[in-house]
Amino acid sequence: xxxxxxxxxxxxxxxxxxxxxxxxxxxxxxxxxxxxxxxxxxxxxxxxxxxxxxxxxxxxxxxxxxxxxxxxxxxxxxxxxxxxxxxxxxxxxxxxxxxxxxxxxxxxxxxxxxxxxxxxxxxxxxxxxxxxxxxxxxxxxxxxxxxxxxxxxxxxxxxxxxxxxxxxxxxxxxxxxxxxxxxxxxxxxxxxxxxxxxxxxxxxxxxxxxxxxxxxxxxxxxxxxxxxxxxxxxxxxxxxxxxxxxxxxxxxxxxxxxxxxxxxxxxxxxxxxxxxxxxxxxxxxxxxxxxxxxxxxxxxxxxxxxxxxxxxxxxxxxxxxx
Length: 322
What we know:
60% of the residues lie in helices and 12% in strands. The chain has a 5-stranded mixed β-sheet with strand order 1-2-3-4-5, with helices on both faces. The longest helix is centred in the middle third of the chain and has 66 residues.
């Protein structure tokens, strides 16, 4: 039987039942005082009745004692909480009805059973309230975490937008290209895409055999990423090099991003390759617009892949085609 109930006051129905049953559980007036003292009622509260019993036993009865003491406990609020809980515990756990007067035993059993039912119902309601409160706190915590994550996401998008914008001011092409590769990894990571940063494959003699700017994983598929910031649109030879890389890797898809766009022959070459392998093209200004609008990078790539595979269009532009 739980004792986590009635944290403030007994309701009238329970109060009346307690007043009726406690005198039945105790044979004498002194037994009533002992029962209440054992439940944690202070001696000062009981002393008045002890004096009255000593002076004139007939001037007070068991019901009067219980009604007065329980009434005082019920008005104490939190200071009477421990005693109220102990009174309930002692009544609901009472089993030795043989100590009651024979004529009171049956009535006492019935009242104790009724109180148990009332307490169980109220305990169930209290547990329901506690569960609902816990769920409410969980929802509030989840909402706060969601809001905090949204604030952090907006901050990161603004920061990345500023970093990408700054690259347009860089005059050194090599430094700009290296910075773009590093920034691209951070841009993909902001929406939780699994990133493998730029890596180099070398021959046995140590010479560079192949260099890939990075790789991302989306919905279980791997994308080898190549990014270029050239003055002129990327032509067929550059795109073909990346196509060779992905065709040499089973099930790997390709993503190529250019700051200067692509020539039509390069786009046509990628369209032809779509028969055998997914290859999508993107432009740096798309990333700039995505960051400015704080749009999901993963969804951007998903839409590009969808249009490439269904429409045979390796290059579609965010903000123009979708």
